[in-house]
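Lab notes, practical 5.
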Amino acid sequence: EAATGKKWVDYWLHNEFLVISNGKMSKSSGGFLTLQRLIDSGYESLDYRYFLLGAHYRSQLQYSTESMDSAASARRSLGERILALKDKAGSAALPSPEALGPAARGYLEAFASALGQDMATPRALAELWGLLRDPKLDPAEALAAAYDMDRVFGLGLRTLERPAEHAIEPELAAEIEKLVAERADAKKAKDYARADAIRNELKNRGIVLEDGPAGTSWRRA
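Output from the prediction step:
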């Protein structure tokens, strides 16, 4: 500020140490990571951002290849869920955060609450995942809420696009949703043969189903 005559920042937060091989990262110890070094190792810069968001800033964070691999994998899964929502939403206009229904708005409120409690980014990430895994949410509303959360995370969710050859037409997305719902009904009726047949049919068409506590999601293989 003395050099420029302009205000620099409102707040300064000092993170706890990034720990490498049982020692803090420092130039003096020789154990020093750079972003370029991570990129040269095959990671994307946003993989590292996701890795950092998974820990509270007051807590030491242990770096390892395994932890970075896990972060990269989780971010890819996150991207697949966003792209699946885009497929389902089609050309539908996305509502503003203020126009969201109670369920989607509830996730945003829980997200804001987590950040308001000493920047609890791991809890905030959990709210984003809960939003994306909720099968009851309207795809356009879920997408709008996820984009709003990403104004904080900065993971580039809004700009994600499938390669042209992997795009899914809205009509096909609707057909897949219908089959997923039919499979859910078959499972409830204990007609496991029909449920398996639907899964195999979609698999043969390049669609992978993922069952979880919140229901079934799908993505292109």
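Observations recorded by the TA: The chain has a mean pLDDT of 88. The CA atoms of residues 133 and 214 lie 6 Å apart.
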